[in-house]
Amino acid sequence: MEGWNNAHSIEERVEELLRSFSGIRWLKDPEMWMLTTWRIGGKALALVEAESEEELTTVLNHCDRLEIPWRILGRGSNILVSDRGFRGVVVRLGGRLAECSLLSGGQVEAGGGVILGRLVQFAMEHGLGGCEFLAGIPGTVGGAVVLNAGCFGKEVGELVERVLVRERNGEMRWWGRNELSFSYRGSNLRGGFVVVVKVVFQLFPEERKQAEEKVRYFSLLRKNSQ
Asked: Where do transmembrane segments lie in this chain (predicted)?
């Protein structure tokens, strides 16, 4: 495959990549300024939405095989894109990877593409609390865990029980809490091209009224600190 890759341009390899997909949503030449909150940036070669673990594996393994650079994009709230764009494939997590599910013992499983506000809402709907401080933070679960997002003395890493990671070698594996290391606005998930696919959070029982009050409290703090 290396010889074939060397004989073909990056654009030709992306064309080959997109032709290989069946049932996976993609868009050629997306304007990156439309996908980021800073509203700057040129085009990427393609935008692909992976809606399951299987689709994500297919997309990233094909990119690696064809030696196509790729990046995972959440809400685009913490990145700056050059006006020259990105000569590679941008991957978004959607479908089942942007949903929450209730586990036992106060645990919630969230896909890496879940918007933080949705995680908070889901927890409140099921009588759980502990993540209310995330309500006003833009971004997705995946990015928040990688960067250990937080505010007002609270960090998302405190809630993480385990993380399903797509490792550099292409394997999917759950990392337990003993394998995770969180620091101020960082973690050992940052860099190295690992992808946060799903996260299990450990929350606690809380009445919805109390949770809603906490959301309002943190929203007020954030407003007053801006």
From this structure: none
